[in-house]
Amino acid sequence: MANEEAKSVTDTDRTVDQLSSGGVMFRVQDLDLYYGNFQALKKINIEIPARKVTAFIGPSGCGKSTLLRCFNRMNDLIDDVRIEGKILLGDRDIKDANMDVVRLRTEVGMVFQSPNPFPMSIYDNVTYGLRCQGIKDKALLDEVVESSLKKAALWNEVKDDLGKNAVKLSGGQQQRLCIARAIALQPTVILMDEPTSALDPVATGKIEDLMETLKEDYTIIIVTHSMNQAARISDKTAFFYLGDLIEYGDTDRVFSKPADPRTEAYITGRFG
Amino acid sequence: MTNDRRTLDALTNKRGMNNQRRLADGIKDFITYLSTSLSVLVLGAVFVFVLTRGWQTLSWDMITGDFWGGNFKVNFTETLPGTFTAPGSLPQDAYFSEKYGFAVRDDKNHEKKDIMVLLYLDPESPLKTSVGATAGPTLDQPLSAGIGAEIRKITYVNDDGAKKSAGLLGKQNAEQMVFTLDTQSVSVDSMDFQSSGGGIRGSLAATLMLIGITLVIALPIGVFAAIYLHEIAGKGKITKMIRAAIEMLNGVPSIIFGLMGMTVFFPLTRLFGATTPNILLGGITMTVVLLPVIIRQTEEALITVPDKLRMGSLSLGATKTQTIFKVVLPNALPGILSAGLLSISRIIGESAALIYTMGTFVVDRPQLNGRATTLAVQIWSVMSGEQPNFELASAISILILLMVLVLNVSVKMITASLNKKWKE
Fold first, then answer.
1. N or C: chain B end with fewer CB closer than 10 Å?
2. Is the distance from CB of B301 to CB of B335 less than 8 angstroms?
3. d(CA B175, CA B97)
């Protein structure tokens, strides 16, 4: 079992290297997304760079979270969604019917808006994903728990009480636990859907610091409502408005010399 | 402007409580109060009535005793006398045997015949060690005369080693029998008595068996159906129709389920050797009655599990099935437990569906594939005879009310704790 796991880890590493050789993790081509008759995303073309932080910004209802959920196919859970176009992860179209969605979600982890640890022990939370894959090797699980919690900067706070129920942690700790839980599966990408919107400034600062170190190993895509946050932590910024990708480029450039007047209006706070 | 002023003036004039309004309010208030007090009064009256009529009958002996009285002949495994002291609470006309530790008194039964009633039996008394003496299933099995049993004859051994009879069959009343035993006997040999019956042990056992069977069948089916409806099925028309059909089942009078059980499910129970209505058939029928309740309750419990937990699980590469069984179900467990408790209280209270499927004949030693009555049906049974036994019916009612009360309070407590758990 341990060998199997080790093998799959190297597999993932290889994919990351292959992918990052071109520097591109996701390639979205002509993506249209409809909720029933409503078109939420219109002809989106975007390339997400590997091992960078990409921020999606835009006013509510602009489609940024919808696009984020395309990357791990969480939109599948919503009735009446129709998607056209391509989302390539390497050379695989993740929209493909043959795509192993369960496998995809272990490669593309996700952190949600409000912390959602399971009402079970910290240890069980972190090992949940691996146990779902059928891994029972205690030594391996122990190792993963320690390394994941260390990477999520939570180890020092909880190492003495891994049996504690996760819902008893503070909000910021819960969110870091959710990050650790995603990391435990050795993903290549971590999607973050407004991960700090339910947290206080101190907890937010900790998560932002964490992202800085995480991007050395993972590709991070973050949806955020905070201009400051996008400016502080992201390498690339994409601005969405009413389902259109208005502008996409290096964060410094987007924030200092926005090409589109709507981008400028939004980041200077004139609407949104 | 002037118009407004005029309206305001008109209003100001009417601001005080005028008599008409006071009267109208008064009548409506009176009706409200009257209705409330009436319903409280009626409920209270039912409770008080049942309590006063049944309290005297309610006793441990009634709960553990047989319903059917009968004539029994028993031998004693312990025959030698001891020294006993009478308890303080014996009535005036009771006679206490200091050698054998029992008390009897003379009485007349409802046919005006002389009888001798056992009033007290010391726990150490040799009479407690009785075993069945007649051929049949009770031979050599413990068979003790309970309080209220009618003693007809006690055979003792005298100084000469001869066996003699004391008691009514020996033309002796209570005083004479106790005197004879205390002065002339060396040991006791056997006893003839008639047990009074009126116990509910059989119905109690049958009720518990019915609860067990029904839950074993109904809980898994109901829980899995709820999981399908809430977690797996889409929100399409078919799901809506299934749900509507289940809701409708809830409104069907249970006697119809009883009829259905008798005709549809009875052949099934024949496989288990049933030739008459039986407990198994009752359990299958109650399953049908309870499925809507269990499905509904379980769905309610599933709804309280926040969606963000399902999302979290799926985003970690868990399959839908893993998500349901590892995350959703454990968190819905208290709700499922309360579904079980509600079902138990429905089973205890049900009678119509069981009359056809389990019969109305009170059985003291119920078998799964034989006739039996639950407590509720026993009430019907004892009240429908030529001599309705109101006291027994009331005593059973007290028990049922108590059980249902305890169950409902538990459900309330579980629901409250469940709601608190997810309040953020």
1. N
2. yes
3. 10
Task: For residue range B364-382, list pLDDT tens digits in order.
Answer: 888 888 899 999 999 998 8
Interface membership of A182 toward B (CB under 8 Å): yes
Quick one: residue A48, left, alpha or beta (phi over 0 = left, psi -120 to 50 = alpha)? beta
> Cα dist. B3→A3, B6, B11, B13 in Å?
92, 5, 13, 16
- Count other C-beta atoms under 10 Å from residue B260's C-beta: 16
Please state, in angstroms and rounded to a whole number, the distance separating the CA atoms of residues B153 and B122: 19
Contacts of A109 in chain B (CB under 8 A): 315-316
Q: Which two tokens stand for residue B55?
A: 């309290």
| pTM for this model (two decimals) | 0.75
Per-residue confidence band for B334, with pLDDT thresholds at 50, 70 and 90:
confident
Ramachandran class of B146: left when φ > 0, alpha when ψ lies in -120 to 50, beta otherwise: beta
Q: Which residues of A touch B319 (CB under 8 A)?
A: 102, 132
Contact between B78 and B131 under an 8 Å Cβ cutoff? The reply is: no
Whether residue A128 and residue B318 make contact (CB cut-off 8 A), yes or no, is yes
Task: Choose between A140 and B87: higher pLDDT.
Answer: A140
Spatial contact of B135 and B183, defined as CB atoms under 8 Å apart: no
From CA B229, how far away is CA A153, in angstroms rounded? 41
CATH 3.30.470.10 at B201-421, yes or no: no
Contacts of B97 (CB under 8 A, 6+ apart): B84, B103, B178, B181, B182
The b/e string for B133-172 (b: 16+ C-beta within 10 A; e otherwise) is: beeeebeeeebbbbbbbbbbbbbbbeeeeeebbbbbeeeb
Q: What is the pLDDT of residues A5-25, one digit of tens each?
A: 444 444 444 444 444 445 888
Smallest Cβ–Cβ distance between A112 and the set B311, B317, B318 belongs to B311
Q: Which domains does chain A have, with CATH numbers?
A: 2-13+51-71+97-267 (3.40.50.300)
Q: Which residue of B has its CA nearest to A69?
A: B315
* Domain spans, chain B: 12-54, 69-195, 201-421
CA-based torsion, A240, A242, A243, A246: positive or negative: negative
Q: Which candidate, B407, B405, B392, places its Cα nearest to that of B61?
A: B392
- SS3 at position B206: helix
Domains B69-195 and B201-421 share a fold: no
In which region does residue A90 sit, left (phi positive, over 0), alpha (psi from -120 to 50) or beta (all else)? Answer: left
Dihedral sign (CA B264, B265, B271, B277): negative
